[in-house]
Amino acid sequence: MLIRITVVQTIIWSAIMNSSEKMKHEVIKQIGERGRLIAEVAQDFGVSNRQVYRWLKGNQATSKKTAKPDPVNAQVAQLKMELYAVSQQLTALKAQVNKQIVNQ
Fold first, then answer.
1. Contact 34, 48 (CB under 8 A)
2. Nearest-CA neighbor of 52 among 16, 28, 26?
3. pLDDT for residue 1 is more than 50
4. Which in 45, 95, 98, 99 has the greatest CB count within 10 A?
5. What is the three-class DSSP state of 47?
6. CA triplet 91, 96, 97: central angle to 5 degrees?
């Protein structure tokens, strides 16, 4: 009988945890994708604002760990480096031209 209760408890606990994860993902979705206020969503789902902030923070940490590098941001960074190099070359050329003008 004791083993049977443990199995039932495990099944119930697993179901609760599974529904909690679904709720957590829905709360994050409501805020992130739909732009709803944290306090509003927290009240709708019956959780505290603090809990929602924890879920959001945990979700951001997970997203950063699994996020793939954004090719657009990488290209922007590359273009900024190229722009800086060209700006340095232009500054050097201007200095040379000014030097030649002064020497004439």
1. no
2. 28
3. no
4. 45
5. coil
6. 95
CA distance 17 to 12: 9
Q: Which of 6, 51, 9, 11 is nearest to 28 (CA)?
A: 51
Give the predicted TM-score (pTM) of the model.
0.46
d(CA 102, CA 83): 28
- What average pLDDT score do residues 61-87 get? 73
Residues whose CB falls within 8 Å of the CB of residue 28, separated by 6 or more in sequence, listed in order: 55, 56, 59
> Could you give the angle at the alpha carbon of 7 between the alpha carbons of 5 and 11, nearest 5°?
115
The Cα 77–Cα 32 span in angstroms is: 26
Which residues of the chain form beta strands (DSSP E)? none
